Amino acid sequence: MNEVYDPDVQGRSQIRKQGEGGRVGSNRKKTTPEIRRTKNVGGGDIQPTQYRDRKDIGAQKPTEKREQQPTQERGSAGVSGKEAQRKAYRERKARESGAKTKTASQLLTKKAPQKSAHPDYKPKTGGAKYSRKERLKLVSAGERELKGIMKNQETDKYKKETGQNPDKKGRSTIVNRVQKRMNN
Questions:
Q1: Can you tell me the distance from the alpha carbon of 45 to that of 23, in angstroms, rounded to the nearest whole number?
Q2: pLDDT exceeding 90 applies to what percent of the chain?
Q3: Where are any strands of DSSP class E within the chain?
Q4: Who's near 20: CB < 8 A, 6+ residues apart?
Q5: What pLDDT was estimated at residue 106?
Q6: Burial tier of 48 (Cβ tally within 10 Å: 0-12, 13-18, 19+)
Q7: 40 - beta bridge partners?
Q8: Are 64 and 106 in contact (CB under 8 A)?
Q9: Predicted pLDDT of residue 181
Q10: Which of 38, 17, 36 is nearest to 27 (CA)?
Q11: pLDDT at residue 177 is higher than 90
Q12: Which of 52, 95, 113, 155 has the most neighbouring CB atoms within 10 Å?
């Protein structure tokens, strides 16, 4: 005996077929001819790349990721309808004026209790004196200074070898020598 669903009911049906590998819903992975992304395999050949499966296949999203979680105890709001409207109006106006408000992801997340530090923890002292930007600036300044010193040394060496000041070709030779020394 074969049961046939009414076409109207079938379209609105909540019955879902479990996909392969524990996937929820159907597999929407593109077939090989549909894939646009390619990779070089060598010898001038190009192949379509296979997409990796998602890590969360088969796992339902937890409710706290899908729905907004309460931030206060149940029934503690105690705000009348009029007050709620006023608050919503003020928030809307603040948002329109460019004030920072909570994003959807911030609203959805539940506030985790603040963790206290381990009693044996002692913060490092005398660590980084400079920020990353300041350190890079100091390093590049030092390298510039060093490059200048090396350039003077190489110029003196060139003068001693040839007995004259470096011309255009001589300067390029000096620069090459300095570059080689800087890379070592």
A1: 33
A2: 25
A3: 38-42, 45-48
A4: 27
A5: 72
A6: middle
A7: 46
A8: no
A9: 93
A10: 17
A11: yes
A12: 155
